[in-house]
Each structure stands twice: as structure tokens, then as C-alpha cells.
Amino acid sequence: MPAPASFSAEAFNQVPESENRIHGDEIARAYGFRGGLVPGVSVSACLLHPAAVAWGRDWLERGHAHVVVSSPLYDGERFRVEVVRASDADYEARLVVDARETLCATAEVTLPAAAPAPPVRRGDPMLARDAERPIAARDVMQHLRATGLRALRARWSETAEITRYLRDANSMAPVFRETGLANPAFVLGLSNWVLGRNVRMDAWLHLETHSQHFRAIEPDTELLVEAAIADLFEKKGHEFVDVDVAVFGARDDAAYASVRLRAIYRLRAPG
């Protein structure tokens, strides 16, 4: 089995009109950024690209990753993913912007001999279509931590909100190009979307994920996403949340993936 290798590409902001307005220029600049941010899930997927190239479907059936996004990446910037240590079953990588020499994100990735025991579906109540959402604030989040989040219905297809992590879909790993399997930008995106469908957040940041694959997600697969708030804390005026997420098949309730997401759900006021 080949070892994961470094690569370079052009950053791609797929969702400049997203409800999360940190991906749009106007609001991002109000918070002190140069422009709309490339989604954290896309940054993360770029760091996982070497795993998908080297290990293919095996990675999507038992791979584990810890990714930390520490600095913004902007649409159109050239970046490189540097694999700084690698074997046939794990690697460490960093994503660096060429022009600025800025370290944007890091990853620790492993391909265990077998996946751990998968999560079991709880049967959480489902989110209603167009359900009213409270504005994310500490008291609201504490209430939802106690009472639980509603589960999200989702579907992996070519019409999903995020279907690729590189501007040129033909540059993605062969396991995605040739089979149509769901890529990590979509899988990690599910952790964002289940939170964002439970509470309203105008501008927020995806910072860190621990993710575990159990099965590859085939085209046109119906999914159920359950989530629970694990922790809430404040740091430097930002409000943080940790969310435990599990992705199941709608037909058989078997797990596809689990994710521990850390995000800033409420940014410190601009200025």
C-alpha cells in the first residue's frame, strides 16, 4: 500500500452565499478577515486527500483523522499540503499557503487494521422542515445540551451543498472521481449542518474535528444525522461548542461515520 504524498492546489470557496455569512466577503471583512473564508470542511478534506489517494476505499471504511484549522484560507490562494511524516498506515500533514507562508491547518491521520465499535442510533426526534430555530446564545445552547438536538435527514448526491473540496473535480482523489463516493468535505459538513439546522448562527467558524469512518457512502444514499452538545465554553470573547455527531443509513440504521466537532458558534463582536 503506498504512503500518502504531498500535493498542491488552488483553494476553493464553494459556498460564498451560504447562510453562514463568514463565507461571504462583507461579513468576513467586518470581522477582520480579508474576505470570505474557504469552509473549514474543505480545508480539512484537502488534508485528508493524501489518505484518499493512497488508501482509497479502505480509508472510507475505517480511517480516522484529527484536523485542526488554525488560520483562514481564501478563495483562489495557492496552497500546499505537506506530508511531514508518513507510513503505510498513518501520517501527519500541514496545509500552508504559498504566498503568505502561513500555516492554516494540521492533521493526524491513521488507517487502523479495523474500525472501532460504531455508534448506535438513539432514535432522536427529527427536525421538521423549515422548523423555527432559536438564535445561538449560551442559555439556548445550555438548554439544548440538556434536552438534546434534533436529528437531520440528509442525502449524498451530486446536488448536495458541498460535493467537492477542490475547484477542479477531476483533481480529487480517484476513489471519489471514479465511484461517486462521498468525500470528507461532505461527511464533515454534516456535523456543521446538523448544528446549523438546530440553531441560527449568522457567522461561525468550524475549527477542529476528530472523525472516524465506518462505511463508504454510496451515491444517492439517504442518511440520518444525530448530534449532542458535549461541551460549551468561552475564550477571548468567543463562544465555543463541542458537538458529538453520528451519521447513519436511513434504511438500516448502521453507522457510516462519527465526528467530534469544535466550533465557535458566536464570534466576539467586531472591533
Would you kindly provide a written description of the structure presented here, covering whatever features stand out?
- This protein has 271 residues and is an alpha+beta fold.
- The protein has a single domain (7-266), classed as Hotdog Thioesterase (Thiol Ester Dehydrase, Chain A, Roll), CATH 3.10.129.
- Helix content is 21%, strand content 33%.
- It is built from six helices and ten strands, in the order E-H-H-H-E-E-E-E-H-E-H-H-E-E-E-E.
- It has a ten-stranded antiparallel sheet with strand order 1-3-4-5-2-7-10-9-8-6.
- Strand 4 and strand 5 (102-110) form a beta hairpin.
- Helix 2 (40-55) runs antiparallel to helix 6 (184-198).
- The chain is globular.
The count of DSSP E runs of length 2 or more, i.e. the number of strands, is: 10
Number of H- or I-type helical stretches? 6
CATH-level-2 architecture: Roll
Distance between the termini: 51 Å
Short description:
The chain has about 270 residues and is of the alpha+beta class.
How would the blueprint of this fold be written?
Blueprint: E1 7-10, H1 25-30, H2 40-55, H3 57-62, E2 64-69, E3 78-86, E4 90-97, E5 102-110, H4 138-147, E6 152-156, H5 174-177, H6 184-198, E7 205-213, E8 221-235, E9 238-249, E10 255-266
Helix pairs in contact: 2-6
